[in-house]
Amino acid sequence: MWHALKHSLAKRKLPPNSPYLPLYESHPDELVSFDCETTSLNVKEAHIISIGAVKIRGNKILTNESFYVLVKPEGIMTATNVTIHGLRPKDLKDGLDTQTAIKQFLEFVGGRALVGYFLEYDVAMVNKFLKPMAGITLPQKQIEISRIYHAQETRHKYYDAEIDLKMATMINTLGIPDLPRHDALNDAINVAMMYLMLQHRRI
Questions:
Q1: Which of 23, 33, 40, 188 could anchor a disulfide with 46, C-beta 3.0 to 4.6 Å?
Q2: What is the C-alpha to C-alpha distance for residues 194 and 167, in angstroms, rounded to an integer?
Q3: CB contact at 8 A, 112 and 27
Q4: Digit-coded pLDDT (tens) for 111-141
Q5: What interhelical angle do 167-174 and 145-153 show, nearest 10?
Q6: 187: Cα within 13 Å, side-chain hemisphere
Q7: Are 148 and 124 in contact, with CB atoms under 8 Å apart?
Q8: Whole-prediction pTM value?
């Protein structure tokens, strides 16, 4: 109830012609799995360099309705960053500016619930730029797949059992294809596959 109240109050603060109103429209039959690649794991200093997303409708991953953009970073990229995601400064020189990338991503998402792996970080990265742009943060419902996985894995184990939540381990346990990771769109599709498997899994 508190979430619904905050949702309503935030929506009322937007002007009638705001381009951000669609973020508050319900899409009960669809979700969006998304991922960001960034220059750092520290939200305060990180910049987004790519965003990938894909829609989920029912039991289907709509790869023909996917979203992927490269973003020209505002900060400096280190060699360590490049070895992780493989994106070099020259690969991003024609990328979108961050605000344009965020706006296009939000147009794709609308009010659909967001699905992700350690989603809190990706949401924080979008909110870091969205808040100054629109005065709001992402209002959509958020679904964390590692939390679902952990709950399933501990259902028949001791409450303090250690559960490996690395993506590679989760993918292997769930028996799904493993697309090359640290690519924003591939990671979004990996998460979508894991989400659907977790929804139909029985332990």
A1: 40
A2: 10
A3: yes
A4: 999 999 999 999 999 999 999 999 999 999 9
A5: 60
A6: 23
A7: no
A8: 0.88
